[in-house]
Structures
1.
Amino acid sequence: MKKHVLSTRLWHWVNAAAIIVLFMTGLNISNAHRYLYWGDYGFDPKDAWLGVIKFPGWATIPQHYNLALARDWHTTAAWPFGVGLLFIWVAMLVNGHFRRDLTTTPRDWTPGAVISSIKAHSGDAAAQGYNPVQRILYGMVFGVLLPLMLFTGLAISPGFQAAAPWLLDVLGGRQSARSLHFIAAWGIFGFFVIHIVLALIDWRLILEMFTGGRRADAAAPPAPAPAPPEPDAMPPEDGAPAHG
Amino acid sequence: MVDLPRRSLLAGIAAMGAAACSKINESETAKSLFKAAEDGHRITHRALAGKQGLAPEYSRAESSPTFRGNGSVTVADPFYQEQLARGFPEWKLEVKGLVEKPLALTLAEVRALPQRTQITRHDCVEGWSAIGEWQGPQLAALLDAAKVKEGANFIVFRCADVLYGRDYYESIDMVDAYHPQTIIAHTLNGEPLPEKNGAPLRMRIERQLGYKQAKYVKAIEAVASFDDIGQGKGGFWEDVAGYQWYAGV
């Protein structure tokens, strides 16, 4: 049994690419009007709850201010992001990933569970399924941040509002939706940083997201020992050349 | 077993990473990808909302205290300025192109048509929004009066303002042209349109972004294709900056 099934791996990398494009084009788009408001309308900086910095070229796609191209990339990458989110949710519900790894019990939210999670993460126990902190963090990303990104993005599209006017009401108006879109983007960025740092500590984790890895908690009886390889195919044990 | 998906995945990721490079922005592949995404949004919006699905309308209490003017906020043309000073007595709105009965209406005639009043939100491509009450006849009524010919696929709006040395224009397809909220507004918040908001007449196409809301409209033209107008991309900002023709996202 693989640690990461193919659907998870496929989604992970497609989504990673989509999110990088969405985030960096999003910063370019933010530069067009660097003020955020609550409610339905907002155009006057003096009504803004937040004035955002001008994001530098190295942080944006394209690397200079170009609203048209940034929007082209943004609204294109939105497709694999949105369809992918639907895909991974269906896949997680069907293959049990959600129930097994992302659901929590009240006990997972106690300080003791958090401390033991952090201790466990550095040891081999990390391989034994998700600890409470992982369940909570991944649950927040899948259950809150990614869907919030998608729904706020749809809500600020004037062509989509006719399909779901209730969405704007739920989110508190178009400028509120735009503010939440910005906040959720930085929430995902925060997760991204933690995720990358922890993965870089053990680079095998990154490799496993390509190969699938092997699940450590195989409860099934151990597989029969593989047949011994042909003597000719045996690699030299000590690294010395096998033949002269 | 593992190698094949891994290799194709790596290749896919490498391609997507490279896609961020600016050179690819100009490639035909990128352009057709953007076009497919844009068409996908338009088709999905229309499928979900229906061709006649309405944009939200607001109450007077929900309106913004003022309505921002953006893009062109004045028109240099002396005839325009002279008409503006006198309340546009000789201003004419033409309906032309692929129509059986070309029209030229005075402002009084536009006001005499059946009117629609709507308090709607204006979303600029830059991100800001303003809410105002607009009044004017539905574009559908004018098109019906002029009897649009078969083969007309788009409605083009010709404007009096000049930006960067070019005449402003915009275009929409027949779905938005016949949408109930698509009106030619002469009134904003109960007053004749101010110059910065497009006096004497501007378009309201409520399911698209601000740059589609052509101001200072002189003529409405039914065409089969906009390939030969401007640089052929269907609008001023589409030509000048490469903005998407479907501005519903």
Note: The first strand of chain B starts at residue 92 and ends at 97.
2.
Amino acid sequence: MTTKKFMMVNRKAPYGTIYAWEALEVVLIAAAFEQDVSLAFLDDGVYQLKKGHNTKAIETKAFEKTWGALEDYDITKLYVAQESLAERGLTADDLAVPVEVLSRAEIGKLMEEQDVILSF
Amino acid sequence: MKFSILVNEGPYTHEASDTAYQFAKAVLAKGHEIFRIFFYHDGVNNATRLTTPPQDDRNIVSRWSKLAQENNLDLVVCVAAAQRRGIVDEGEMKRNGKDATNLAPGFRISGLGQLIEAGIQSDRLVVFGD
């Protein structure tokens, strides 16, 4: 099978809309198709990775554990926009999994290298 | 050039599916090929034949059906997203013990693998959503 470079761009907060959750389903299927998958977290999307989600009161599934499972699918390229973290008072230490923190401009360059970009 | 299109919003609330439709028409008018149009998130609501807008408004659903029929397009609705939102074909009705179907003509329900395949097979995968 042809392998292409897929980047999934996550821009929305983890709860409040379903985009983040259904984006994760696309990520896992792309990995199952043995594509070269990377994830970029921009804007409120950086909240998806934050430690300490507790979703009991809103009766929805929490994300946090799924990020740890990505490695099992050989998904290790997680890029987080430094400016988006800073704007929200966050650092890489606040995140549930190891990521590569890059500037928006650097993530833009990575986007130029992709074959397919899916933004959610 | 070979295009695929991803529609991530439902009809009427957002203009995204209108824009996707106009884009698809423009792609075909320029002589390009459309490999597949995939409907995800609330985009699956583009595929319910029960949609009944006022007579002086566009019918977004039947417009997709007509475009598919005239151009032999592959309109695919994500099964997991469809199940969440109650978009049902014959197979899904039987599988999930439902008492009705509402999938519009020209659409078919399938898995997310069809979206990834569209990304692999097409020169461009263009995403419409908010």
Note: Chain B touches chain A at residues 6, 8, 40-41, 80-81, 84, 111-113, 115-117, 119-120, 125, 127, 129 (CB under 8 Å).
